[in-house]
Design a protein that fits this description.
about 300 residues; mainly alpha; 3-stranded mixed beta sheet; about 5% strand; globular
Length: about 300
């Protein structure tokens, strides 16, 4: 307990270096709550809460293992970044979503920034003292891997387009995106499950299963591509892919289309499935979470 107390004290001292960010929390929370309205929930709202509920478990484990630097980074910086991204993504914050997010957030921050947590708590009127409030517990029903992957697909697509724009430097760019569909998506998801189970051979075993209309040679090629592609995505993304039954990247990006065009300064953004573009040779190379991007 003494070691934990000393470690927490050091982390609080580290937080002082980021005093400006800490002092900005209260006005940020006030702004969010003032703008928030009850409206129809979207996958972006579910994304925000899913991230927070997964983070509860991560922070709790970090504190129990005395990894306080990791805990404070996740509680403060990661949560702040998620909230800022969410505010960029939605025109009007969803009241129930942001209230739950803030309720959890101030309790996670309390060990590290006790004074600002109490000030925010006083504003939201949630607890008598947040320092003695019950530590949050993750709600499995709020963890939504599909919503997280949908938003990941938007973020990754924007990063890829931005990099291409940096290299090509087109004026008023017209961007065409072709998404993977059909059996390839199912193959990638099932391959992800094999990779998570440390069974790369199982990916090649998928060649003999299902998709009878697909030539064996094409499935064998896909198995090699799948392993290489999944390795590039990282364990956390692969884990989510293994957990979902479906992933509609095109719908996610369509919902974010105006946001993407505005953020990247695109003249035009056209979205298609690979099967809708038989005349576009590059479209056939699209994979789950790696669409084909053509800039004109």
């Amino acid at each position: 307990h003494r070691d934990l107390h000393l470690s927490l004290r050091r982390q609080r001292q580290m937080c002082i270096r980021d005093r400006s960010k800490i002092s900005s929390l209260k006005p940020l929370v006030e702004e969010v709550l003032n703008k928030a309205e009850e409206r129809e929930e979207t996958y972006v709202d579910r994304w925000l809460l899913s991230r927070m509920h997964r983070r509860i478990e991560e922070i709790t484990k970090a504190l129990e293992s005395l990894y306080t630097r990791t805990a404070i980074h996740k509680a403060f910086f990661d949560s702040l970044n998620d909230l800022k991204w969410y505010l960029r993504r939605v025109e009007v914050p969803h009241r129930s979503t942001v209230e739950e997010f803030i309720d959890i957030w101030i309790r996670l921050l309390s060990p590290f920034t006790p004074f600002i947590s109490e000030e925010i708590n006083e504003h939201v009127g949630r607890y008598r003292f947040v320092s003695i409030a019950e530590w949050p517990r993750p709600d499995p029903d709020k963890i939504d891997y599909e919503s997280e992957l949908m938003e990941y697909s938007v973020i990754k697509l924007m990063e890829d387009i931005k990099e291409l724009l940096r290299v090509l430097k087109p004026k008023s760019p017209r961007v065409k995106v072709y998404f993977s569909s059909g059996w390839k998506n199912e193959f990638i998801r099932r391959a992800a499950a094999e990779i998570i189970n440390k069974n790369e051979r199982g990916v090649f075993g998928l060649i003999r299963e299902s998709w009878r209309e697909v030539p064996i040679s094409e499935k064998a090629k896909m198995a090699k591509l799948a392993i290489k592609h999944l390795r590039s995505l990282g364990e956390e993304v692969v884990f989510r892919l293994a957990k979902v039954k479906s992933l509609d990247e095109k719908t996610a990006v369509e919902m974010a289309k105006d946001f993407i065009k505005r953020e990247l300064g695109l003249g035009e953004l056209t979205l298609n499935l690979d099967v809708e573009a038989q005349d576009v040779e590059k479209a056939k190379y699209a994979l789950t979470l790696r669409p084909t991007i053509i800039i004109e």
